[in-house]
Amino acid sequence: MSDAADADARPVIASTQALTQRFGSTLALDALDVQILPGVTGLVGANGAGKTTLLNALLGLRTPTSGSATVLGLDPRSQGAMLRTHVGFAPERDVLPDEMRAVDFVRHLAQVRGIPRSAARTRASDSLWLVGLGEERTRTLGTMSTGQRQRVKLAQSIAADPQLVLLDEPTAGLDPTQRSEMLSLVAEISSEHSVSVILSSHLLEEVERVCDHIVALQAGRLVANGPMAELVGDDEGITLELVDVAEPAGSVDEVERLLRRVGVEVERTGTTLRLGGSERGAISDHARDAVAQAGARIRRLEARRRTLADLFEPTAP
C-alpha cells in the first residue's frame, strides 16, 4: 500500500466544521474547516491569529459562536469533561502555584483527569523524569527557572497517559538551547509514546523542525492545512542575489530584463531575484548568462526552498 493510501486510512484526531468564534466585533475564527491527523501538528500563525482560541474550542473550554468540532470522536461542547480526561493541555500562561512541589502538582492534575491516587503518584514521578526533572521533582515550583516550569507544564500534560496533547507556545521565554531541548522532548514523547500533539507556536522555524502536519492561521482564517512535506521543501526555483555592480540599478534591471526575455519568471526585492517558471538547471544557466551579459556579479545563486513563512506572504494580484 502506498504512503498516500496509508495517510488516507489514518483516523482523524480532531476536526472542525465551519468553526466560527466572535468576541464582540472581533472575528477570532472565521469558518474554519480543519482536519488533524495522528503525529505532531504545528498550529502556526502570528500572535492574535486565533491559535489559542482554536485550542480552547477543541478542549471545550469555550463555546463557538457557530460551527462545530470533533476531538477523539467526542463533541467538545456536550462531552467536554469526558474529552479532557483523554487530552493533556499545557497553556501558554504561567499558572503554576509557586508553593506546591512539582511532583505534587503533576500528581494532583493526573488525579483530576481520573487517575487513582497511587497510580497518579507514580505517573507524576515518571513524567518528571521523562522531561528531565526527576532529581528536581520535590522542589517547589516557585524556586524553578522558566525552562524548568515549562517542563513541569509538559510533564503534567502527559501524566494521565493522554491520546492527544495540546501545547500552547511551549518554548515561550526559553533561550535557544532550552527551546531546542523542549522541541526534542515533544518529538520524543510523540514518537516513543504514541501520543499525538498539537503544538501552537508563532516561531515557524521551530514548527518546521518537529511537526508532521501544519494548520496555519492568519487573522482567524485558514491559510494552509496539510502534511509538512507538501507545504515546505525544495521547489523548482532559484534565488539570485547580485552585488558589487558598477551601476547597481542598471545592472540589476538589465539582468531582470534579460531573464524575462527568455521566459524566466522573476520576483525582485532590491538586488535579490526569485526565479522560476522552468526546470531548475535551465533557470541557473539563464541566470549566469544574464549576469555575464549585464556585467553584474553574483553574491548568491542557490536552490529556492519553500518555508512556512511563504504561506503568509500576500498573493500577488
Distance between the termini: 41 Å
Strand content: 25-35%
Briefly note the CATH topology name of the largest domain: Rossmann fold
Could you say how many structural domains there are in total? 2
Q: What is Rg?
A: 24 Å
The number of distinct β-strands equals: 13
Q: Helical proportion?
A: 25-40%
Low-confidence sequence ranges: 1-8
Order of helices and strands: HEEEHEHEHHHEHEHEEHEHEEHE
Name of the CATH architecture of the largest domain = 3-Layer(aba) Sandwich
CATH superfamily of the largest domain: P-loop containing nucleotide triphosphate hydrolases
* Number of separate helices: 11
Strand order of the largest sheet: 5-6-7-3-8-9
Give the helix/strand class: alpha/beta
For the largest beta-sheet, the strand count, sense and barrel status come to:
6 strands, mixed
User: What top-tier CATH class of the largest domain fits best?
Assistant: Alpha Beta
What do you see in this structure?
- By secondary structure, the chain is an alpha/beta fold.
- The chain has two domains: 3-228, P-loop containing nucleotide triphosphate hydrolases (Rossmann fold, 3-Layer(aba) Sandwich); 233-312, 2-Layer Sandwich (Alpha-Beta Plaits).
- It is built from eleven helices and 13 strands.
- The strands form three sheets. It has a six-stranded mixed sheet with strand order 5-6-7-3-8-9, with helices on both faces.
- A hairpin with a 2-residue loop joins strand 11 (265-269) and strand 12 (272-276).
- Helix 4 packs parallel to helix 6 (146-158), helix 5 (117-130) packs across helix 6 and helix 10 (248-261) crosses helix 11.
- The longest helix has 18 residues, at 176-193.
- The protein is elongated, with a radius of gyration of 24 Å.
- It starts with a helix and ends in an 11-residue tail after the last strand.
- Residues 1-8 have low confidence and may be disordered.
